[in-house]
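Schema walkthrough. Field components (list of strings):
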Amino acid sequence: MSAYLKIDHVGKTFSRGASETEVLADITLAVDKGEYVSIIGHSGCGKSTLLNIVAGLTPATTGGVLLEDREVNSPGPDRAVVFQNHSLLPWLTVYDNVRLAVDKVFSGSKSRAERHDWTMHNLDLVQMGHARDKRPAEVSGGMKQRVGIARALAMEPKVLLLDEPFGALDALTRAHLQDSVMVLHQKLQNTVMMITHDVDEAVLLSDRIVMMTNGPAAKIGEVLDVALARPRKRLELAANPTYLKCRQRVLEFLYERHRFVEAA
Amino acid sequence: MSLSALTSQPASDTSTTSATVLPLKLKKPSRLATRLIPLLGDIAARVVPPTIVIAVLLLVWELLCRKQGATLPPPSQVFTETYDLIVDPFFDRGGIDKGLFWHLSASLQRVALGYALACVAGVALGTLVGQSTWAMRGLDPIFQVLRTVPPLAWLPLSLAAFQDGQPSAIFVIFITSIWPIIINTAVGIRNIPQDYRNVAAVLRLNPAEFFVKIMVPSAAPYIFTGLRIGIGLSWLAIVAAEMLIGGVGIGFFIWDAWNSSHISEIILALFYVGIIGFVLDRIVAGVASFVTRGTAAN
Ligand SMILES: Nc1ncnc2c1ncn2[C@@H]1O[C@H](COP(=O)(O)OP(=O)(O)O)[C@@H](O)[C@H]1O
Ligand SMILES: [Mg+2]
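Field assembly_structure (string):
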């Protein structure tokens, strides 16, 4: 019962006027410290809703979320989020976007100079130190997402929440960023919860893959352990039998047993 | 490490000096040709058409008003009759017998005060209405009705309340320019993307930080739209209000000129009113584009 992050019988029902939609039903999941967990499921099944509940941005209707055995029900920098659409503030430079987070989280514990160094350190981690004075509009989509990751890492979160962080990127940029995230996870040993709808991405990055059934009232359908040694190399994995087996399992789940029905 | 640094230092020095000297000599004359001449051409393209149009209009006006029985003076007569006012805007013979500078500056001071109050109150109320559904439901119907009241309709009421022309004129400016500021600010606040709110929530920004760091920059383009409409309305209202309250001010100057049948002075005053209205609008627009640089692009 002493998991690092515990999602405990969480259910969510949205009510709009008289109509009610049960999006999530009784989700229970325990994540260990340093673990990389992916949540995969078809579009609209409630993945973002689940992530937002963990982030504290959306209140759960039933159940709750425990982090280090303490209930969390409001947002905070201990559960930093990287949003799908980067969510950088367009009027701030790349540096200032990260610095805003650093200033807020470390206002009491770091001096001005230390906060500057910490901001630059995190920008350098994602190889964005060179673009510190650019505005988000002046850098590419992949770079924006890197800055979003730097901002989240700079908060030194207990759990890093990624909501389809590479969803809007082209295949090549996406692969680059996946590699960067793998390296960072190896280095920093963060606890990560990532949402994706890309099977290869899930297998490549995760220690465990949580597969969700289709909504309404989505549940956890299956949890798959990815027993692949780290560090993982994209090219070497292509022919790895464990990799292929994991991939097969997820594909079967998504496209045979829980096919996406458009008129859900 | 130090050895390689030492050897590379002079090499890079010589290369930079030789690289900078030569092109500079070559580029100097061509830069003048490539930058200055197009710039002059650009200026000419902007200045020539309005100059021609103004000249034609003045000519038509001159021809029309020169005829016998014309009720308005032609431009040549306006110029000769107002020559003293044009060359000496700073005279002060006491009372309201002052140069145009003093009238315009009195009007501008009233506008500045009323408009400044409207900016502060308008942004504050707009934020309240944009942020709180309850405040919006309660206040929006009232705003929608009050904003249709014509500026001058407020004047008798404010004269009754303040018992004096000066604060009444300022109040009229205030009440005229506040509505577009409130409404546009509220729309801007309501349009703050949920993403920015989420970022603020994760960072646990307190309300003051949220206002300064997220709300104001995010809503700035909307707020400045309101501020720009507001300054235009203020300048429209001040002339009318001053005609009624009297005293020093460009509005009463115009009214006084009409009473003394100095039509040329009215025309000169209208010219100044137009120019200043234009300049005020450009100032607010300039501040807006300076403050909101980077916000529009996402
Ligand atoms: N604020 C909300 N109000 C009502 N319904 C919502 C709200 N947010 C999400 N939903 C619904 O919940 C379901 C799951 O949404 P979401 O979590 O965004 O799915 P996913 O991220 O898996 O694509 C969708 O059917 C969506 O319409
Ligand atoms: Mg989603």
